[in-house]
Amino acid sequence: MNEAAITLDGWYVLHDFRQMDWASWKQVDPELRKQATEEFVAFLDEMQLADDAKTGAHAFYTIVGQKADFMLMTLRPTMDELQELEARFNKLTIADFTIPAYSYVSVVELSNYLAGESNEDPYQNPHVRARLYPELQRSQYICFYPMDKRRDGDDNWYMLPMQERKDLMRSHGLIGRSYAGKVKQIISGSVGFDDFEWGVTLFSDDVLQFKKLIYEMRFDEVSARYAEFGSFFTGTILAGEKRSTFFNI
Ligand code: VOV
């Protein structure tokens, strides 16, 4: 019997990680550097219009460590819009001085593991909508990583009966909820879209809460037994003037 969880799917998500080719950027004429930065900031301002109109969302963060210099996370109602925005970014002058570091394609997802019985259309429920089409808080810190649920011998998530998965997810949800107000999570599904099964994006104003939450979850059976992880990316927000001063030489 097919016991796949039923998912609600919201906005499509692109996490686009770039390294700066600082050596080449430093060689650029200061006036051209200024123009290229202004062009990029104007692009971000235009993105903000979609956030304001609630027709999409974006987040712009530096990444600490050598994996990338910055990450632009974009959410839109269709994958086509993500592709268009990606192409537009690639045609900006500043993009000539970036090197693709990593990217992740997914769609914001809610599962029915903990949903109650109801006849209402979940897509009309304001609480569900707020999670499927999230307004991104301008939190100071971001943490992103892709993950799978294990399919290995006796530890096969996909062979567990629905009820067992529900029980396990309840425990997961309880830990998560104890971080309410400290960490906000966006879980996006990527089966068929990218190399892992989910993207996990966490936001917080206290970077240490990422470590505490993720560590606590490691002891919970859903993660301890069934989770496998890709690379972790952690960063700090680039907002206001920092969107341009980050590129100053
Ligand atoms: C910040 C806290 C937090 C909270 C409150 C929370 C709650 C919940 C609930 C209630 C549910 C189920 C219903 C739904 O909403 O879909 C989920 C679902 C999910 N989660 Fe979660 N999670 C959190 C946080 C949180 C983290 C930190 C991780 C990474 C795990 C780790 O070990 O590093 C994670 C993963 C997931 C995944 C991959 C799914 C989908 C699983 C699937 O098989 O479909 N999650 N999650």
From TrEMBL:
Catalytic function, reaction form: harderoheme III + H2O2 + H(+) = heme b + CO2 + 2 H2O; Fe-coproporphyrin III + H2O2 + H(+) = harderoheme III + CO2 + 2 H2O; Fe-coproporphyrin III + 2 H2O2 + 2 H(+) = heme b + 2 CO2 + 4 H2O
Domain of life: Bacteria
Name of the protein described by the UniProt record: Coproheme decarboxylase
Pathway the protein takes part in: Porphyrin-containing compound metabolism; protoheme biosynthesis
GO biological process entries: heme B biosynthetic process
GO MF entries: heme binding; metal ion binding; oxidoreductase activity, acting on the CH-CH group of donors, oxygen as acceptor; peroxidase activity
Role summary: Involved in coproporphyrin-dependent heme b biosynthesis. Catalyzes the decarboxylation of Fe-coproporphyrin III (coproheme) to heme b (protoheme IX), the last step of the pathway. The reaction occurs in a stepwise manner with a three-propionate intermediate.
Keyword Phosphoprotein: no
Residue numbers annotated as active site: 145
Keyword Repeat applies: no
Free-text remark on how the cofactor is bound: Fe-coproporphyrin III acts as both substrate and redox cofactor.
InterPro entries: CHDC, ChdC/CLD, Dimeric_a/b-barrel
Cofactor(s) required for function per UniProt: Fe-coproporphyrin III
Organism: Psychrobacillus psychrodurans
Family from the record: Belongs to the ChdC family. Type 1 subfamily.
Residues at which Fe-coproporphyrin III binds: 131, 145-149, 172, 185, 223
E.C. designation(s): 1.3.98.5
Keywords: Heme, Heme biosynthesis, Iron, Metal-binding, Oxidoreductase, Peroxidase
